[in-house]
Amino acid sequence: MKAEASCKVCYADSTEKHFGVQTCRPCAAFFRRSCIQKRKYKCNQKEDCHINQTIRILCPACRYKKCFEVGMRKDKIRVNFDKTGPKKRAPKLEDSPPSTSTAPQTVLEKLTAGYKTYLYDTKNLFYAFNPNQIFFKDIAFRKGTLLEFFQFERAQQVYVYRMMENHYSAFNQLSDDDRVKVFEGFFHQFTSLNEFYLNRLYFPDENRKMLLNYGAYIDLDDMNYFYSSERDTANSTRLLTTYRTKLFKIADKVRRVKVDETEVAALAGMIYWREVKCQLDPKPDPNDNLLNQILADLSAYIAARVGSQRAPQRLGVILSLLRDLKEAVLILRESQVVAMITNDYLQGASPQDLSSIVKEEEPEITVLEEL
């Protein structure tokens, strides 16, 4: 049984009552804001998420419902003394990026917030590449080429870097050289993971297609189009056959398991931790306890999502994706070596010097922020 001094909503420490119930300040602020702004939330699961301090930010629908269930009273809100009220929304291109909160965040909450920001940024990058699409609610997908894929990959590197700098433990404390090493090891694994997740969302029942990036996909039945920008289509197809096969297998796995946004964020955090350990000299660093924190938060999240009995099995399957991603990158690097000997078309896939990337992309960032 939880102590009387704990929040009735999320079980965090609490010293006083808010709106008739013993709650923590973050839950009280959440309840007040939700009521005054008349917010409508939707649960992405089965409307039975187990709300606790670790995952309270991840499902506002179930958190809001629980506020009423434990007895929080809407009539106790003093609307006239609250500066937060309904506001008219200005027309906008995209949903607002995830808001920042002054409440303490768990490691998983911080990683998830960073991933949400990255998704927002890269979707706006799609609109920057395709301004004719800004008038339509749904993204129109078409077949993509290898060249277009490389161009989008290169353009989004700055957003991956921003995510790591703002949301990844101690990344901005590393030296410039160490940041480049970690970034280069992290980038392709993370972007592949992101592509698999988006593929599950946009092509849940089409296993002959795989998302490349927002607005573009590979058609397994028309690989000639994917390689149409290359000078030797047959050679390109042959060199990347093993890599392509691996990608489609991982895509099927992610689709089957229905990996969600929070689980992707947790995996990304573990990829980062692994690259810090692999790329840097063995020495004491601020990331030593990061993996344990991510695993603890992820375990609690999965247990709340699928129940404690099914949680260990799901956790194991989710973690196995780390090995899949590493193998895919190794296969790609082998293909690159062969390609650089026989054909130069893959050289654009090699990571560039990070400082030059950030410098070259700055004008584009300014444009995107103004949209």
Automatic annotation (TrEMBL):
State if Transcription is listed as a keyword: yes
- Entry's Pfam families? Hormone_recep, zf-C4
List the Gene Ontology MF annotations in alphabetical order. DNA-binding transcription factor activity; sequence-specific DNA binding; zinc ion binding
Q: Which GO terms describe its cellular component?
A: nucleus
Signal sequence residues: none
Q: What is its main location?
A: nucleus
Question: Which species?
Answer: Bursaphelenchus xylophilus
Alphabetically sorted, this entry's keywords are:
DNA-binding, Metal-binding, Nucleus, Receptor, Transcription, Transcription regulation, Zinc, Zinc-finger
Per UniProt, residues of the Nuclear receptor domain are 4-79
Q: Where is the composition biased (Basic and acidic residues)?
A: 81-95
The uppermost taxa in this organism's lineage are: Eukaryota, Metazoa, Ecdysozoa, Nematoda, Chromadorea
Give start and end of each NR LBD domain: 103-358
Q: Where in the cell is it found?
A: Nucleus
Q: Which residues form a coiled coil?
A: none
User: What name does the UniProt record give this protein?
Assistant: (pine wood nematode) hypothetical protein
> PANTHER family from the xrefs?
HIGH ZINC ACTIVATED NUCLEAR RECEPTOR PROTEIN (PTHR46011:SF6), NUCLEAR HORMONE RECEPTOR FAMILY MEMBER NHR-86-RELATED (PTHR46011)
Region Disordered, annotated ranges? 81-104
